[in-house]
Amino acid sequence: MNADTPISAGRVLLITGASSGIGAATARLAAADGWRVVLAARSRERLEALAEELGGSQHALPVRCDVTDWDEQQRMVDSACEAFGGIDATFANAGFGGPRGFLNDTPEHWRAMVLTNVYGAALSIRATIPALRTSRGHLLLTSSVAGRRVLPGSLYSCTKHAVTAMAEAARQDLHGTGIRVSVIEPGMTDTPFFDERPAHALRAEDIARAVLYVISQPPHVDVNEILIRPTEQQG
Question: Could you give the CA distance from residue 132 to residue 147 in angstroms, rounded to a whole number?
């Protein structure tokens, strides 16, 4: 390895929710920085296209995974370790939102959202801890500004409060293992989360840069929380 080789070269980053938005943007930026990436989501076709874009099997591994399914999470981790020898960082990023108002959404959509945003994130933590213990790696979760302040009638906001708490619970639980734990809390971001592009929104690449900053710190630095808003966002 010469002086021009990135410190991250060859390290392995596993990303859930990798097929679009923040997950895909993070995969692109990480791959450009020398990381090998494990791309997990439910859309195999999108994952395969992204993996090919990032250089194929030597650099990116597409793994279809429904994060609400424990067996699929375990297979995801097994595939990552078999292909790349381990996991140095996990980005539990899968999630989606819904309309505000406790009468403005369906119970079925609520159930899917809670299972993905909360239970799915917890399963990603559980599934990847053994590999992260071995690498003394990094666990990172996607919460939201909505996980720091209450949005009227928003069950999505409630799920992201849970993710913010989950990150701190995991940090305390994993203290002494060498695993660092961080939570990223984006404000309004132009991703498929929104049906119409919000004005003055962050771009997915803005959040990806924050993720790469966090996981590229030296082992003695643990950036626990980053809250990032568009300049024009007040709340």
Answer: 25
